Give the backbone structure.
Amino acid sequence: MNGSDAAGRLVRPFTLTGGRTRPSRADFTLITSVTAVEPQPDGARRPQPEHARILRLCARPVVVAELAAHLDLPVSVVVIMLCDLLEVGRITAQSPRQISRTTDMDLLQKVRDGLGRL
């Protein structure tokens, strides 16, 4: 990668977020599932190219970490753009279901035994 390519990669994420460095909401984790709303809301403005790319990738449910990998962008930048899309009703975000916090020792023992047989 030459010097101008490296400089372009540093500037690009900054421009995608309009200079913002923090998301406007706390809805997203690495494993939050995101899905594009179909049909898109009436009267919605045409999305920016990167937002449109996110919407295409979210035609089926996809988690934030996978989305960032497909876009080749830092997760923090993707989360800021997802906040934009969520606020205008273009996507839905589904937090992962909370698994019981109690430890089932019997289940853990079975997992350990199963791994030991591998």
